[in-house]
């Protein structure tokens, strides 16, 4: 195994694949030898040329910031001597590679594949057959949880589980903040992974059931039931009867062979480290390309973690309208920060930095690797559900729970979640954890479903991509992931307004 990786020939830093002690030497491809002048942790960067103060640090072939002092070859490059170059709202120019975009558009839908899923009445396909309990307001969270406990004693047939998705919202909200809550709840009620849904309301909340129903559009009354607790003499008794009705209907559902063009995958990373952008995220990018090539859909979110890499995505937009939508998403998110008086580039997190990520550009250039190489076909606002095949961009924050919930609400049946630090969480849909290194996989075998760490131990990305793709189809066809086996299910709504 090599001691280092130089990602792009333009880079003036390398990523240390093993910890280096001051005095350790590496030999570059041109035969030159660089001696480490500092102790450098694994996953962190070392300079391989002289970088003058205020000059750029280049990684992935792009700037990730500038040094704050003169740096010699062999120095540790990190937060102590590097800072972001990013600034506020920018103007952008659309400069696509039109030949590449045209070629990639011709490839979309060329390949075929299949998995076993649940075809719903509206034509959408679920990869689970669960009964979901959705509270309209946080006041009934405990009732929803108690009903789920009762419901799991009644499951039969093809029902996987009864799950309550609790949250703190649905009342004391105003304007767009309230609208987003209603939209996300409606998206989840309509999600194809749910064979049946019990909507539990209190009765006096702003987003009560009568208010929420118009957001649902056409729904199957046999598979969506409603309980207003204030109108019920015994909400537990009535709720249990409604769950029994839903289970009776959904338990007869059967999987059938469907095309992978019906698959929608969410792309998310969290607890990233210095290996995320060179193992797990590029591997997921290959999966995104594979799914899109088969006519399926992938959704990339975490807008603040596009800052610094946004032009790469913009120049892959299929046309100028999609480019303008992407510009509006990026600058709109920056305005959200500035209106609240917060710095735009308050990133990366302490865990990211400990793992080797220095600036937001460093993080974003690694994060966007998950998008693969196909054109951006569509841009979704928060709460939108996609109906466009191919790569979609979704407006949502970087927060793991908020972003993953937004991916589920946008239509993803499964989320591919890459991590270098590890996390136990799961979102409303199966959440496949992909570690960037083998250390966290070996330590947290109960969290991690797949490791991309073998990419730095000699295995090819193509081989790993084939294995991960097979695992995704197996999971889509019913095999539970680690977080599902543990019984973990999380949901979080993006809070964007005042609380009354």
Quick overview:
By secondary structure, the protein is α/β, with parallel strands linked by helices.
Instruction: Kindly report the spatial arrangement of strands forming the biggest sheet.
Output: 19-20-18-17-21-22-23
- Number of individual domains: 3
Strand coverage percent: 15-25%
Q: What's the number of extended β-strand segments?
A: 23
> Helical stretch count?
14
Q: Average pLDDT across residues? A: 96
Radius of gyration: 24 Å
The biggest beta sheet reads: 7 strands, parallel
User: What structural class do you assign from the helix and strand content?
Assistant: alpha/beta
From the N-terminal CA to the C-terminal CA, the straight-line distance is 58 Å
Low-confidence segments: none
Helical residue percent band: 25-40%
How does the overall form come out from the CA principal axes?
A: globular
Task: Considering the chains and any ligands shown, give keywords for the structure.
single chain; 500 residues; alpha/beta; Archaeosine Trna-guanine Transglycosylase, Chain: A, domain 4; Rossmann fold; 3 domains; 7-stranded parallel sheet; 4-stranded antiparallel sheet; 19% strand
Question: What this model shows, in words?
Answer:
The chain is α/β, with parallel strands linked by helices and 500 residues long. It folds into three domains: 4-83, Archaeosine Trna-guanine Transglycosylase, Chain: A, domain 4 (Roll); 130-252, Rossmann fold, CATH 3.40.50; 258-485. The chain has helices at 98-107, 141-151, 175-189, 209-216, 235-250, 280-293, 310-314, 320-339, 350-355, 360-367, 400-409, 438-443, 461-476, 482-485, and strands at 4-5, 13-16, 25-27, 33-35, 45-47, 56-59, 62-67, 76-77, 82-83, 114-119, 125-126, 130-135, 162-164, 194-201, 224-228, 256-259, 264-269, 297-300, 376-380, 390-394, 414-419, 431-435, 450-451. The strands form six sheets. A seven-stranded parallel beta sheet has the order 19-20-18-17-21-22-23, with helices on both faces. Strands 1-2-5-8 form a four-stranded antiparallel beta sheet, with no helix packed on it. Strands 13-12-14-15 form a four-stranded parallel beta sheet, sandwiched between helices. Helix 2 (141-151) crosses helix 5 (235-250) and helix 3 crosses helix 4. It is globular. It starts with a strand and ends in a 15-residue tail after the last helix. The model has no long low-confidence stretch (mean pLDDT 96).
């Amino acid at each position: 195994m090599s001691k280092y990786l130089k990602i792009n020939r333009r880079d003036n830093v390398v990523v240390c694949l093993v910890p280096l002690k001051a005095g350790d030497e590496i030999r570059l491809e041109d035969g030159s030898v660089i001696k480490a002048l500092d102790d450098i942790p694994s996953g962190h960067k070392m300079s391989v040329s002289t970088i003058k103060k205020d000059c750029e640090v280049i990684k992935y072939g792009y700037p990730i910031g500038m040094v704050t002092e003169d740096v010699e070859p062999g120095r540790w490059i990190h937060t102590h001597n590097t800072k972001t170059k990013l600034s506020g709202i920018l103007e952008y120019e659309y400069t696509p590679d039109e030949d590449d975009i045209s070629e990639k558009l011709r490839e979309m839908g060329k390949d075929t594949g299949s998995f076993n899923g649940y075809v719903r009445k509206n034509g959408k396909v679920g990869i689970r057959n669960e009964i979901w309990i959705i509270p309209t307001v946080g006041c009934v969270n405990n009732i929803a949880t108690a009903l789920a406990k009762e419901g799991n004693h009644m499951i039969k047939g093809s029902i996987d589980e009864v799950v309550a998705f609790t949250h703190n919202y649905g009342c004391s909200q105003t304007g767009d903040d309230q609208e987003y809550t209603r939209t996300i709840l409606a998206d989840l009620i309509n999600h194809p992974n749910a064979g049946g849904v019990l909507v539990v309301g209190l009765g006096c909340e702003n987003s009560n059931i009568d208010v929420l129903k118009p957001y649902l559009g056409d729904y199957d009354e046999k598979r969506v039931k409603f309980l207003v607790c204030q109108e019920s003499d015994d909400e537990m008794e009535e709720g249990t009867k409604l769950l029994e009705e839903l289970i009776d209907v959904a338990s007869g559902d059967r999987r059938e062979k469907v095309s992978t063009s019906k698959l929608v995958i969410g792309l998310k990373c969290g607890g990233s480290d210095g290996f995320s952008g060179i193992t797990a995220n590029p591997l997921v990018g290959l999966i995104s390309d594979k799914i899109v090539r088969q006519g399926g859909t992938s959704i990339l979110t975490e807008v603040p973690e596009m800052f610094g890499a946004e032009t790469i995505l913009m120049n892959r937009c299929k046309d100028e309208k999609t480019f303008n939508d992407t510009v509006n998403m990026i600058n709109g998110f920056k305005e959200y920060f500035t209106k609240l008086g917060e710095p735009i580039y308050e990133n990366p997190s302490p865990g990211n930095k400990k793992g080797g990520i220095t600036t937001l550009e460093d993080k974003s250039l690694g994060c966007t690797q998950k998008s693969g190489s196909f054109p951006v076909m569509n841009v979704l606002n928060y709460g939108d559900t996609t109906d466009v095949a191919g790569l979609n961009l979704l407006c949502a924050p970087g927060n793991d729970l908020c972003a993953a919930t937004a991916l589920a609400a946008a239509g993803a049946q499964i989320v591919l979640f890459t991590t270098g630090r590890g996390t136990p969480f799961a979102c409303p849909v199966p959440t496949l954890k992909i570690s960037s290194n083998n250390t966290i996989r070996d330590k947290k075998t109960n969290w991690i479903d797949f490791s991309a760490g073998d990419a730095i131990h000699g295995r090819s990305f193509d081989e790993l991509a084939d294995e991960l793709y097979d695992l995704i189809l197996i999971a889509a066809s019913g095999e539970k992931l680690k977080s599902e086996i543990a019984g973990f299910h999380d949901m979080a709504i993006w809070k964007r307004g005042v609380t009354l």
